[in-house]
Amino acid sequence: MSLFRKRKEALVDFSALAVDFHNHVIPGIDDGSPSLEESLKMLHLWVELGFKKVIASPHVITALYPNTKDIILGQMHHLREVITENNLPLELEATAEYHLDFEFRGRMEKGELIPFGRRNYLLLELPFQEPVFSIEEIIFAVQAAGYNPILAHPERYPYYYNDFRKYHALRDRGVLFQLNMNSLTGLYSGMVKKAAEKLIKNNMIDFACSDAHDALHLQQMKKLLRNSHFISLMESLMLRNAELM
Fold it and tell me: What's the pLDDT tens digit per position in 193-220?
């Protein structure tokens, strides 16, 4: 008999993750779910996939989606009522996906941010086309304010692909990495898929989430249950989603 444990060929569901904290399920406030009907489809799918808690994270981008704490939390409470009315065994909380634009520091200083988890996590997004100026200074300010930064979908920033040391530099500063699971299905591009696989291989992923904008994104995730890279990530025991229960 082999001395090595055989890797699973397929997973049953996503119940080992338990929590999805990057998604756009709150309807009508960003580029995510356009309606309550679509949000309800998404909520049913999370239950079907084995999740126990969803933490909604609508965009906060000054020029596009200037959502405030009051708007986000108010809409979250309304969606909780829908969950109760439909007897769904799913917890709902809210945070936001904060784009590091020119208003981010001001929001932080005014107490407008919505951290999540016992460790005061913040989900941060970088621009896709070019790096943020003085990212190190911003990360330091976030940490000095008592927050723990999580970088949303690091595999989607093309300016890091040719210099992996930039990823290591962020992690050395205490930044945690959140993978978009559908990056492994090729949903975004072949380059994104390749970067995601490399980050997994180098043990640099701390959380895995859907970044679901609609029900189709969640349907697409079913492919991951037979994806060797995702199975490897799940079996690595590095993912920390369940700590948020």
Answer: 999 999 999 999 999 999 999 999 999 9
- Count of the separate structural domains present in the chain: 1
CATH code at 219? 3.20.20.140
Residue 198: burial class (beta carbons within 10 Å; 0-12, 13-18, 19+): middle
Where do the H-state alpha helices sit in the chain? 36-49, 69-85, 104-109, 135-144, 165-172, 190-201, 215-220, 228-235
4 inside domain:
no
Q: Is the full-model pTM beyond 0.90?
A: yes
**For residue 10, is it within any domain?**
no
What is d(CA 100, CA 163) in angstroms, rounded to the nearest whole number?
A: 21
Bridge partner list, 94? 56
Q: Tell me which residue range forms the domain holding 109.
A: 19-244
Sheet containing strand 148-152, edge to edge, reads 59-60, 97-99, 121-125, 148-152, 176-180, 207-209
